[in-house]
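Sample intake sheet
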Amino acid sequence: LDLSNCSLHSVPPGLSEATAAIALDLTENPLTTLPNRSFLGFIHLQSLAVPLTLECPGGSDAWQNVTVDRSSQLCQGQRNRCNSSVELAWPCPENSVCAPDGPGLVQCLCDNPFHGYKCLREGTFPMLLFGGILGTATVSLSLLLWGTQRRKAKTP
């Protein structure tokens, strides 16, 4: 994806839809910062060229090779922080596994069959129970409102 010399002052909002990109060029743009979450989901990104004034997203530890030339930085070979010897700043909870989520970013995914907050619930989500309670509450409230409010409706 070549976005070089596009007069970008910030990362375009539509960039978040290009998570399948393998190479990205942002050189020759008047970018001042790259927000931390700009490359969330870019797990396939292997080559990123940024203006010299900016650092590679995730820092130099997130890349295998950072090359600086006279006008740009080339960040190559995104590292998987889950496999590194450096301990994560936030460990994944029990019943979950670490997964990469972009340069310098990780996410914790629940192991099967766990789900919910901190992967503490086991089994599947109780869809039938949830739908039954929600449906019953909706029908009951609708009937109550219909019964109490229909006397206010004027008949022709």
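Comment: The helical segments are 127-149. The chain is about 15% helix and 20% strand.
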